[in-house]
Give the backbone structure.
Amino acid sequence: MASKRLYFFVLIFLGLVGLLLLYKYINPVEHMLFPKCPVKHMTGLDCPGCGGQRAVHYLLNGQFKQAFAQNQLLFFLAPYIATGFYLQLVPKPTLNELKLRKFLYGRRAIQILLALIIAFTIIRNMA
């Protein structure tokens, strides 16, 4: 069972590495390869992910100021998501790792995260 889980995460990891290489070397603004936001296209409003592809491209090329200007939420969610992947990979988590997982990904944490994403979306569309 653990080996299937490990293979799954290795596949996910390799896919992410491939995507990151793609985003590093190809600017989403200049190429049609990358999907455009359907919410922005249909409503003219920015969704929480709008600018995320451009931000990833700029981050991978060391242009932090431009990346932050594209999507501020990405700066906070990227480490959060990476921590979640790490905590899922730990085969025998310690008590502290279990507590951290519950603190960061428990019901209350997800409710707070959802509220932050909604607030971010409202604020970015008011400006």
